Amino acid sequence: LKFFYCYSCGYRKVFEDYANIIRQKYPEISITGSNYDPPGIHMLIARILGLLKMVVIVSILSGINLFNKFGIETPSWWTWCTENKIWSCMMIFFMTNALEGHFISTGAFEILLNDIPVWSKLETGRIPQPPELFQIIDNHMLLDDPMEPMKPGFFKIKN
């Protein structure tokens, strides 16, 4: 049983709770969980934002004027940032963190049983209740049980 969840959404705790519940009822099932990565472009944007954030904060703190380096007139907001280093760095840090969080947040809580998707929060819009998950697992395990022939054309389910 594999869980893929949105770490930034706080679904790791939900995964841990579900894993404990499932281990109690189905001790023979192996349970793993990992982060559901956002689409490639979103992850790229988040990484670029993180890098730009550090470059801008270091430039403000060190007094480097990036605009003069490129032969561009220094904007008034940059002058304000260099005069108010603490406030500007805090503002840049928190604003870019919010944007990064937006880009890496997927809202996913996906469940796969034997590499077959059995639940998708992205499709249903909600996380399954424990009884629903138990029913899904029970039904899947029932379908996986081998059948033995009774008479030609008939099968008996092994218990």
Task: Describe the structure in brief.
With 159 residues, this protein is α+β, with helices and mostly antiparallel strands. Helices cover 56% and strands 15% of the residues.
Explain the overall architecture.
- It is a single chain.
- With 159 residues, this protein is an alpha+beta fold.
- The chain has 2 domains: 1-37 and 107-159, Glutaredoxin (3-Layer(aba) Sandwich), CATH 3.40.30; 39-105, no CATH class.
- It is 56% helix and 15% strand.
- Strands 2-1-3-4 form a 4-stranded mixed sheet. A two-stranded antiparallel sheet has the order 5-6.
- Helix 2 packs antiparallel against helix 5 and helix 4 (76-83) crosses helix 5.
- It starts with a strand and ends with a strand.
- The mean pLDDT is 88.
Percent helix: 55-70%
Judged by helices, strands and strand pairing, the structural class is: alpha+beta
Largest sheet: 4 strands, mixed
CATH A-level architecture of the largest domain: 3-Layer(aba) Sandwich
Terminal Cα span: 22 Å
Counting copies of identical and different chains, the oligomeric state is: single chain
Mean pLDDT: 88
By DSSP, the count of extended strands is 6
GO molecular function: thioredoxin-disulfide reductase (NADPH) activity
Organism: Triatoma infestans
Protein name: Putative selenoprotein t
Transmembrane segments: 44-67
